[in-house]
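Quick log. Single chain, no ligands specified.
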Amino acid sequence: MCPRDMTSREQELVSIAHRVLPGGSLGNLANDLVIDRGKGSHIWDVSGNQYIDYLLGSGPMLVGHAHPEVLEVVRDQLEKGTTFFAGNEHAILLADEIVKAVPCAEKVRFSSTGSEATLYAMRAARAYRGRDKILKFEGGFHGMNDYALMSMAPANPAPFPQAVPDSAGIPKSIQDEMLIAPFNDIETTNAIIEQHHDEIGGVIVEPFQRLLPPQPGFLEGLREITEHYQIPLIFDEVVTGFRFGYGGAQEFYGVTPDLCTLGKAIAGGFPLTAVAGRGDIMAHMDKGSVDDGEFMPQIGTLSGNPVAAVAGLKTLEILRREGTYDRIFTTGARIKNALQMLLDEAEIPAKVIGEASLFDVFFTESDVTDFRSTLEADPVAMARFNLSLLEQGIFKGASKFYISAAHSDQDVEETIAAFETAVELLKD
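-> predicted structure:
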């Protein structure tokens, strides 16, 4: 194992990045690695080093990089125009496919980023309910809008239901409109909702929070109490939509929300996201369907642009093919199970957490079920593990292995071999 080779060109680009970009990065994955291209399950840096890619652009490349069928339809659309700020065939058909696929979806509106989608979903819930407060879960990631950046990763968690801002520049008034509950704790969540039900406009949750699967009964209990008080339940499925199955996590776990947000997989690597849900809630985006004062405008220059939409349509077509999800989940299970086995054999305290299509390891002896329990994991061991993998040609983020339909049996074998080396390193 040795540091990767860097050409003078990549070194020059890194130098420029540190001069013109805050922190030398795009604000996403922060390291001195500059990606040149991707194909299938692999990426290459500017220096020509090849990696098996488990970051996948943070999830969108579910069918792999530069899929030839996706490229073909994109090239065809580029000749016809890139955006129109008006209805187009591909966006209309993509919305129709989402309605067919996603249990909660009766109507769809497009946006460009996950942060936009969650903002609009929360606003739609408030417009429908006529209440201001939003309840979210500690550790839940819902993008970069002000509401989402409450107790997303608090360094010093406050007593529930107090919200803690994760960013400078957020008005105090936003903090006052957010309630925070512990993920996977339905008793505490129910108590908060019972106390504040007449103030709550909506509840937003990742049904699979970052890497944490819901405990049995948690989503069902959340569905029950929000239905009881007629509070819109929002599933943030920007990550899990179409990744956990064609109907997303709501199909996978068997719980249907009132609204959901979608992104990543639905655009095949292009910037497009969506809010989807019940017709009576989505009607607040239609001026002709609601009374004066109940309308919420939702406008975006690139929302539903035809290039992203046609890429999304082709991606969803590929996902619908027989055996696609079986392959994704079989591949992921082999990698996930092998990693846990190697750690157990080495007697390294660690828990591989998640589902077969999306998982990672926490270096801890404790059960990992909510945000506060993730804080007990050893970040130094995690950093050493990730660095070892990178030096062996395995590319992932700080957390999460994203699995694609493009990962091959050979990729799996090489990944497990890299695990063996990384685990040996951790024993020292």
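The chain has two domains: 8-66+324-427, 68-319.
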